[in-house]
Structures are given as structure tokens and as C-alpha cells.
Amino acid sequence: LSGLDPAQPYFQDTPIEVRLDKSDAEFVDIIHTDSAPTIPYLGKYSTPLTAIGHLDFYPNGGKQMPGCGKNPVSQIVDLDGIWEGTRDFVACNHLRSYKYYSDSIIYPDGFLGYSCASYDVFETERCFPCPPEGCPNMGHFADKFKGKIKDDFLKLYLNTGEAKDFPLWRYKVTMILSGKHKVKGYVNIALYGSGGNTRQHQIIKGTLQPDNTYTSFIDAEVNVGSVRKVKFLWNNNWINPTFPKLGAATITVQSGENG
After folding, report:
1. Domain coverage including residue 138
2. Fewer CB atoms near the end CB (10 Å): N or C, the chain?
3. Distance between CA 19 and CA 247 in Å, rounded?
């Protein structure tokens, strides 16, 4: 049984006979997409961050979904029509749950949820990569993880795209810079692999110090597969008459899915 952002009024903090909970089926998975107050201090539209199923997924932290804060006019005049756009304007975060679910049918390898104490911890290196038993897939294929659940409640975190197609695949990039002088600017990289190529993703912005190690996460819009090439680009933001040179001594790419 899949709960798609189970909504709050007369629901949250009620007895289990009233609300959805893990005793309602052999396997209950939940997608939380709108646990922030709709009107601050006057209640919420959905359940809080409390875990209520066997697997509880919190995409983007479970509160504010990417793409839901865009211009109201552009949101209402939606590619899928004014009715769909108007619904998104009124309850965009809430409705993301079913859109993620429908995308999960098309991408059975997508929406990997990483077991973590919180979204803040997820953004560090402590919940990466997936453990030996793997990570469950949010959505239609969550039940593939049914026999692997060890904890009473499993809270899982992931990021999604701003618009369809929503799934992203997580990689950790560790880079040692080479050069003679530090400069200010940014570094972008793109991954090329057997499954496809990514756009450029920013790894560092600020002071670029040769011999320093920099680590960042990439939530890629494609499952790269086996990485075959990494494109490294840097820019120092303004014209520098000394024409500084900067390179990458090493770039290590680690897949979240299999380590």
C-alpha cells in the first residue's frame, strides 16, 4: 500500500484506526512531499516528518519541492493545460507525490532513497553510498525492498528534478586541483558514461587552491552507468592578465547505487 503524501486535516496524530499506518497492509511505503505549513502557525496540508510506514521517503527533505516556487503565471499556464497548472499553483508540493510515483513506473532504477537520520545529514557524506543490501526505490518498485527491512521505521532521503522527468542519480565527486597559484572562480564537471552523459554540474565556487581536495555531490539527470570520461572546466569569473592555469590532478567519481 503506497501513501502519496497522506493529507492532514483530522488525520495527523489521530489513532491508527483513523490514519494510515504500517499495520494497514503487509507492506506500506509513504512519499512525504508537503510537511511544511501551508499557512504558518495555522496548520499544515499534510502529515509531518513522522514516519508512519515500513518505508518513509522524504524527497528534497519532504517540505518544499523543486519547481514549486516558480512564477505563479508560468505555473498556471502549464504545458499540461490551465487546469493542471492551477492545481499545481494551489497544491504543488502535495501533488508532486503522484507525479514522482508515475515517473517511478517509467524509471525502475530511479529514485533511490538513502537511509539517514535527517535531510541535513543526507547532504553530508554519512549516508553515502548505499549499504550492501542496496537502497530502496521510491514509488512503484519500493516493494522490491520488502524482505530487507531491519528497522521499525526507515526514513529515506533523496533529491528530485524540478520538472518531469523527476528522477536523479547521486554521485560523489572528489577532486584534487593542480596549478601554481590559488585563484577565485568555479569548477564545473560533466560525466560521460555507458548509460548517458550529464550536463555540467558545479563542484566548487570561491577560492580554488592547488593541491587541495574538494568533495561534492552530483544529483545527475541520467544514470551514467560506467563512467568513461569526466570533462573538467574552470572559470575565474573575470579577466586576469596573468592568465592563471588550473587543472585537476585527480578526479574520483563514486556511484551512490553500488559504491
Report:
1. 1-167
2. C
3. 56
Same domain, 109 and 16: yes
Same domain, 119 and 144: yes
- End-to-end CA gap in the chain: 30
Residues 12 and 67 in one domain: yes
Q: What share of the chain is helix, strand, coil (3-state, %, to 5)?
A: 15, 35, 50
pTM of the predicted model, to two decimals? 0.87
Whether residues 32 and 159 share a domain: the answer is yes
**Residues 57 and 140: beta-carbon distance below 8 Å:** no
Give, for all 259 residues of the chain, the pLDDT tens digit: 999 988 666 676 678 888 888 889 999 999 999 876 544 444 444 444 688 899 999 999 998 999 887 655 555 555 555 555 555 556 788 889 999 999 999 999 999 999 999 999 999 999 999 999 999 999 999 999 998 888 778 999 999 999 989 999 999 999 999 999 888 899 999 999 999 999 999 999 999 999 999 999 999 999 999 999 999 999 876 666 677 889 999 999 999 999 9
Domain count within the chain:
2
Nearest Cα residue to 247 out of 236, 237, 234: 234
Secondary structure element (H or E) that encloses residue 197, with its range = strand 196-197
Q: Name the DSSP class of 152.
A: S
> Are both 195 and 239 inside the same structural domain?
yes
